[in-house]
Amino acid sequence: MKNFTLPIRFGIAASGSLIGYFLLLSLFDFHTNIFFSLFNGVITGFAIYEAIRFRRIEEGSNFNYAKGFSTGIVTGFTATIIFTVFFTLYATEINPEFLANLSKAWFKNFDFEAIVFFTIAIMGFATTLVLTLTFMQLFKSSSNAIKK
Prior knowledge:
Elements: H1 2-27, H2 38-59, H3 65-94, H4 98-106, H5 113-139
Helix pairs in contact: 1-2, 1-3, 2-3, 2-5, 3-5
């Protein structure tokens, strides 16, 4: 369990940031504009990057690609799951008109409630995978020998 403490902490922090950003957008009624959700990738990416960076510092010379990759995946998946649960509660319990407003702004019909929640989760998982693979290119150890 010790191996998952760091990424879970960063995932919880990322999900708190995602929720805070969403609620900030809702204060100004911008939460129905899907283009603002692009910043979610920045928030998630920062959390994944920092989690991998801290894991590398923590592990020192024992750090390897698998440890960094699993750290990034657990961080992003934790953030995605928590945010998806919040988004589902928000759209069904806190502001039931939200999906209707989103539907009027971007779609022709309203029979897409489950698809929206599924899409939020899949987007988060895909973003996590791509960002983790990208950041691991920065943090992996080079196996190239230095020739003099």
